[in-house]
Design a protein that fits this description.
By secondary structure, the protein is mainly beta. Helices cover about 10% and strands about 50% of the residues. Strands 3, 4, 5, 6, 7, 8, 9, 10, 11, 12 and 13 form an eleven-stranded mixed sheet that branches. The chain has a two-stranded antiparallel sheet with strand order 1-2. Helix 3 (about 125-130) links the parallel strand 6 (about 105-110) and strand 7.
Length: about 240
């Protein structure tokens, strides 16, 4: 179920998840795990320093007009092997600049490896910090991106965004800084805690996780969605979004 930029777990899936070859699963896991030391264990490659301000739309395209991201989902079930539910990639291209209401705004084109039958999740836009009105998408591949959930331009520990839209409550808070390794580079990042709730019953947590933002915009996002139900069984859905 896609609701305003957040992918919410369905009570039950209508179709059985497409089986992914074990080789692909192992390859994806190896690529994502390699160099991903969240606790910054000792010496490593040179550090990509945080900028003084966080402007994801500009930071993402600091060195190139094209950026590639990988999104995957994994269902973890008690007593059963993990299964990869989906694996896809996004390419975001800075297509042009325009001026709206006197403000220069970059516009982006989003393409993906998803299809109309298995559309891309829209939640990735809220993790990248891309504003929905600056993104061009193919509606057959990426559903309506919904509202943009912003990041602060000048990050300060304790900053908090708490917003409600169409039955969902979305909370994002900056609670720490952290150096993480991604694709062979060490990134100084701001670590934003995120959670999504049913707005009518805030005690019911749908999913929570962390988004790491740095000089290149998004570095990594990971979240857990407990009690996710599919025809393959119920478990914890693990969502990960990484940039090179």
């Amino acid at each position: 179920m896609y609701i305003d930029g957040v992918t919410a777990p369905l009570p039950a899936a209508r179709t059985r998840p497409r089986r992914i070859p074990a080789r692909l699963l192992l390859t994806a896991a190896a690529l994502l795990v390699a160099g991903c030391d969240l606790f910054d264990g000792g010496k490593g490659p040179p550090v990509v320093a945080r900028p003084t301000t966080l402007t994801p739309e500009a930071d993402v395209f600091r060195d190139a007009d094209l950026r590639r991201y990988t999104w995957f989902e994994e269902l973890r079930r008690d007593g059963k092997p993990d299964s990869l539910l989906g694996l896809g990639s996004f390419e975001i291209t800075w297509t042009r600049d325009t001026v709206m209401e006197g403000e220069p705004k970059p516009f982006f084109d989003v393409s993906s490896s998803f299809t109309a039958a298995t559309p891309a999740p829209t939640a990735f836009l809220t993790r990248l910090g891309l504003r929905a009105d600056r993104v061009q998408v193919d509606p057959l591949l990426v559903p309506d991106p919904g509202p943009s959930y912003r990041f602060p331009e000048t990050p300060v520990l304790g900053w908090r965004l708490d917003t409600t839209a169409h039955g969902l409550r979305f909370v994002r808070q900056l609670n720490r800084t952290e150096t993480i390794t991604q694709s062979g580079m060490r990134h100084q990042t701001w670590a934003f805690a995120e959670s999504t709730w049913w707005a009518e019953t805030p005690a019911v947590l749908l999913g929570s996780g962390t988004t790491w933002m740095g000089r290149t915009g998004l570095v990594r996002h990971q979240s857990l969605w407990p009690g996710f139900v599919t025809t393959a069984g119920m478990g914890t859905l693990v969502r990960t979004l990484v940039a090179p």
